[in-house]
Each structure stands twice: as C-alpha cells, then as structure tokens.
Amino acid sequence: MKFRDEYRDPEAARGYAEAIARITTRPWMLMEVCGGQTHAIVRYGIDELLPDGVTLVHGPGCPVCVTPAEYIDKAIEIADRPGTTLCSFGDMLRVAGTKGDLFGAKSRGGDIRVVYSPLDALRITRENPTREVVFFAVGFETTAPANAMAAYQAMREGLGNFSMLVSHVLVPPAMRTILDGATNRIQGFLAAGHVCTVMGFEEYFPIAAKYRVPIVVTGFEPLDILEGVYMTVRQLEEGRAEVENQYSRSVRREGNRPAQEIMAKVFRVIPRRWRGIGDIAESGLGLSEAYASFDAETRFGPVSSGPEAETECISGLVLRGDRKPPDCPAFGTRCTPEHPLGVTMVSSEGACAAYHRYRGIPRPPLKAAS
User: Fold this and answer.
1) 135 has which bridge partners?
2) pTM of this prediction?
3) Mean pLDDT across the stretch 179-183?
4) For position 304, what pLDDT does the model report?
5) Which residues pair with 28 in a beta bridge?
6) Which of 124, 163, 205, 284 is the most buried (most CB within 10 A)?
7) Could you write out the DSSP letters of every residue in 106-167?
8) Is 55 helix (H, G, I), strand (E, B) or coil?
9) Taking the CB of residue 184, how many other CB atoms lie within 10 A of it?
10) pLDDT single digits (tens) 65-105
11) Cα 346 vs. chain centroid, distance in angstroms?
12) How far is it, in rounded angstroms, from Cα 253 to Cα 205?
C-alpha cells in the first residue's frame, strides 16, 4: 500500500511492518486498551500495514464510552436543580443516559459549564460561593491525580459548596474481565502509555503470568504502536508472556509515585459498572471516607443503577473487542456522529467515531455481471 504522508518516518514504519511480517508464522490477535492508540491505528492505517495473520482489535480504552448511563442520569438530575452548577468535560455533554443527555439539561436552563481541568471547577466554585458546584469526574487512572488534587485543594480551602460526581475506572481489572470472558480471543495487549505514566506497570505482571499473555506498554505515535506490535508478536512467537516497556521515554516501572499518593489519599477502590461490559469488581475509584463530604452522591443522593437499555447499537461488543465498528449494520447510516446511536460514535476517543472520521462508510462489494 502507499504510505500516508502523516508518518513522521515512512521508512522506519516500513521497516517495522516488514520485521513483523518476517517473524509472524501463525495468526495472532492483539488488543489495545487506549482510545488515543485506537485513533492512531485507524487514522494512519497501521492495521493495514500488518501481515494478514496479525489482527488488532479495540478494547474499552475510551473513558467516556464506559461511563455508565446511570451516572449521566445523576449528572442531569443535579444540573436540573436550582442553585446548582455542573462542571464537565465537553465530551460528556452528548453522551446519552436513560433520560436524555446533558445538552438537553442545558437547553432547559441548567447551569452546565464545560471545563478543561478540575481546577477550572474550583475557580468557578470560588467565584460563586452561594451556588453548589459539582464537578463530573470521569476517566481512567490518567485523570485521577488531577481530580484528586481538586478535592484535596477544596478541603484545604474549605470550599463547602464544591463536590464531585466520581465515575473513575481502572484498566487492569477490565483486562482481566476480557481475558476471563467465554468469547475471549485476545492473545496479547498493548498497554496504554498514559495510564502507565501515572501507575507504572507492576500491576501487569500478575496478569501476564496468570493468563500467559504478553503485555507491552506502548506509546501513541505510529512508530510506537508498530514497535509495540513487533515486541508483542515476538514474545508470542517465542512462547513468552512477559511485560515489556516500549514507551520507556515516558513510563517507569514504578510510575509516578506522588500522583499515586494523592490518589490513595483521596480515593478508595470500589466495584464499578462499565457501560457495555457490566459490573467489574475493584475496577473503580470513589472518594475515601476522609473526603466523603465532597461526594455529590452524599449531597444529592446515590446513583440508581438499572439494566442497560437494549438498542441495535453494538457498542458493548465493540468495547469488549468482539466486533469492529464496520460490523454494525447501522454504522455510517442510521448511526453517525451527528445522530449517534451509541457512545462509541459520540466520544472523540470512541472507536466508531475514529472509523467514521478516517475510514468513511464501508461500501458493499460490487456484484459480478450476470
């Protein structure tokens, strides 16, 4: 195929692709668990460079996509209250709960502010001492330290009108759930570089040992991903199941200890429901007892969970790696970024959004002339 101009070093990319082809002797299926990696793979055609035997599938690497619908419902309920300001990252506004989305709440007059950092929410709290300000804290381990610091700072300043609706999730338990699944086909993982920048990769050694799967911490540039694939396939071909670090320029084995310390001070590990996947033990973060007064569920009532609504959307199968976006009959027709049926088409990190943006709508094959 023709290499795309966006590659920073096409010859190096070609070299990695050829090296992967040389060492591949049987089919292998690998999963990345990072929305940034998914978008790089689709945008730059990395999967198209690989030999036929090496398949990349996309896991639950989009934090917006796995946020449960009941947390969206709670955020809407809070935003609808008089005297309350809800602060959220922009991606969350279009994500549907069971009762609409935050854009709908905003159109009804809800005071919803798009912020780019939890520190923006603290500033809004200081500027509006008579209003209850709630920050919708979502994301993987990557965003947890900054959100923890916001709660820590609020306590130090005595900001009694600040609270957080917390829906953080943790990556390693989700990987275990995928590997335990009856339909699991994954033989190796590309671990998310940003998560490992914070947490390191010591948590992955027991997973690699128990399930006999190689795990390679991988960056986000095209050459990072190709090298990560090469390292994973090489392990598989050699019969190894180890943890390796491709992203050594940013990730250390122990991770960022100060970031982990503030997380441990403010948060505690709890069970969490993942949209499209289900309940996963010890896969979430909630506020610790010391910070319970800043918990929006304490102030506004607990989140009520219920069964997920059934639709024709297959985003759950996409998040588990069982299907790819073009496998959905609604992809690009009844489901588009303007009129999404599911979260993986809504979020900028969702796999369906990536395929729609960079690959377009798949066309049916032409029928042979009779």
Assistant:
1) 87, 164
2) 0.91
3) 92
4) 87
5) 54
6) 163
7) HHTT-EEEE-SSHHHHHHHHHH-TTSEEEEEEEESTTTHHHHHHHHHHHHHHT-TTEEEEEE
8) strand
9) 17
10) 999 999 999 999 999 999 999 999 998 999 999 989 999 99
11) 13
12) 11
